[in-house]
Amino acid sequence: MHKARMMIAAVAMLATSGCVRTAWNVATLPVKAVGKGADLMTTSAKERDEKYTRRMRKQEEREQKEQREREKECRKHPDRCQLDAYPRQ
What we know:
The protein is mostly helical. It is built from 2 helices and no strands.
């Protein structure tokens, strides 16, 4: 008889644990949703720094590419090239 009660109690606990977990998830859902929305709307200092660094790196890459293209053009057509570093006197 004692074993039967223990089995019934164990089955009841297992059966209700799923219900408790579901109730907990439903109860915490609005809090999680508000937190996620706030996280999406705000930018952390780290994220701003990463975005700034990425933008600066891309700008430097563009400038280097343009410089290589100007140097290549100067090698092909030296008469069209203007030497800004050494102005003629």
